[in-house]
Design brief:
The chain is mostly helical. The protein has helices at 7-34, 39-66, 71-90, 94-126, 130-155, 161-175, 194-197, 200-229, 234-254, 264-283, 288-294, 297-316, 322-351, 354-382. The protein is globular. The relative contact order is 0.15.
Length: 387
Amino acid sequence: MSNEPSLTPLKMLLFSFHATNTIILSFLPLYLEYKGLNGTEIGWVLAVGPLAAIIAQPFWGYMSDKYKTVKYILLICIIGLLISSILFFQMNSLVAILLAGFVFYFFTSPIGGLGDSLGQRRADALNISFGTIRTWGSIGFAISSLVIGQFLSAAGIQYMIWPYLLFGIMALIVTFKLTDVKVANEPVQLKDVNKLIRNKPFLLFLFFIMFITMTHRTSDSFIGLYIKQLGGNEGLVGIAWFVGVASEALIFAFAGRWFRNYHTLIFVIFAGIVYSVRWFLYAAANDPLFIIALQFLHGLTFGIFYLAALDYVTRLIPKLLQSTGHLLFYAVFFGISGIIGSLLGGALIETYGGGTLYAVLGVSSAIGTLLLIIYHTMNMRTRRRGI
């Protein structure tokens, strides 16, 4: 197909963006500690990201649908990422870091969702698995977690901005070569967003999955601290991230063919069950190596859950509002869930320890999975055709 070469820039965009994302997710707390912030202050900075995402993701998604382009919204956001990251890394006082951090996350938080939205649409157009595209993001995450970790260990955490800008510039270059989406001719109006607000199955689904996505975001934030509580070090934390993301990449690469045989909601529910088992096993751990050994479950949980949930959401929302709907899903998955996870998770692990935290996560995942089973059962009863 003539459009097929356009997948290479898209894969490279996902690779380079998720490489930058690794640097922030894995090393920003250490950088802020180097800047002199205490644990509570670091928690506030980390909470700014999900807060900005709740505003930024629906806004940029709507702008993408309104102007019928993903490519140029991505260009604006990546240019904003580069400029705001330079400012963000120059700040020293807590207030300045918080304000610069909000602007920084306002531009960075939609990029992953927009890239995935474009990937989902290109995969549908070419009749291929979205996972074969999205796996390149996981590869970028995994490679960056190893390479940048070694670089910062040798050079010092204060030089974190340089690899970040390197991958950011790479993302900007490949975005110019992207093939944009083909969309309907009619322009999107603000009143069209009411179609999403009135879409009860869509809103119920987002609410129910939040019981599960919150646990994922909490673990992202505190698994490193839990490994250290169990006697591990930064090296083991890096290995744990690598194992988890490597398993995720494998799932993204091969999961697409499974969706052809079963309803995607079945996979969401399956992943929810595995999430619950995973967190209860983590809660029972008494050795950091036990956590690392179980990190392969990251692929069976996040990998399957994210692919299946995004596929299901794509079927629930009108084609005219694909970017808005995708980024609203992203705002729930990574925004609202991230705020709840950061605030509650921090309080739980500080007061009761990591074991109790992961036990609570297991209960929350089980509740979310039960709600999804009820939701799926009611859908099957009220209509016979699949969504």
